[in-house]
Amino acid sequence: MTKAPGASIYMPPEALEDESRYDITIDIFSLGVLAIFTVSQMFPKPLAAAYMDRSRKIVGRTELERRGNYMQEVTRQFREGHPLVQMIQRCLNNIIEERPTIQQVMGWLEEARAEVEDGEYDVNKLSLAQLLQSRNLSIQQQRIQISQKDGETRRLHEQNEALKQQNDVKTAQVASLEEQVQALRAGKTPITSQKTTPTPKQAVSGASPFPS
């Protein structure tokens, strides 16, 4: 048990100290951990806070480094510099004073939502008439090219559908994080008070780890 409310896996290092003081910065840190969980769909169990290198010197890890494997999945789904990536990196800052405010978090979430909503998914269908403009092509060559273009069009359509599904997932992830922030602003039970560990089945299926 810890003296601060919540499960230790969500807590910043200062919350686990003997003379810890609970405030909003702890919840901000926990929001960053939950954001990793939401996007990666993997329970972000951190690495040890320190390790011994080859020279037998103790080397400390930052909180972001402790969750580096999961952050790779986050940046893979979005990109380095994406508003959600920036938010997570700031929330998990070891320096308390450099963690963001709720207003800054809301700003990043609004930017992330805008990027998702502004995304365009053009199939770029090809006109078969364009394939017939070349008079030097034989009918057989034309049929081959038409078949190839039709196959390319189907492939692009499948990619478009996959992108739309990814867009829906990201929209749901942003909405989930916004709900967590709204709960913090409303002074409801801290998100870090949840101690239930999700099962592997929940993580794979994408079931929400957040209380309703």
Automatic annotation (TrEMBL):
Q: What Pfam families does this protein's entry cite?
A: Pkinase
Q: Where are the transmembrane segments?
A: none
Q: Where is this region: Disordered?
A: 184-212
**UniProt name for this protein:** Protein kinase domain-containing protein
- SUPFAM superfamilies xref list: Protein kinase-like (PK-like)
* Protein kinase domain boundaries: 1-109
Provide any one GO MF term from the record: ATP binding
Coiled-coil annotation reads none
Q: Kindly give the InterPro entries that the UniProt entry links to this protein.
A: Kinase-like_dom_sf, Prot_kinase_dom
Write out the biased-composition intervals (Polar residues): 190-202
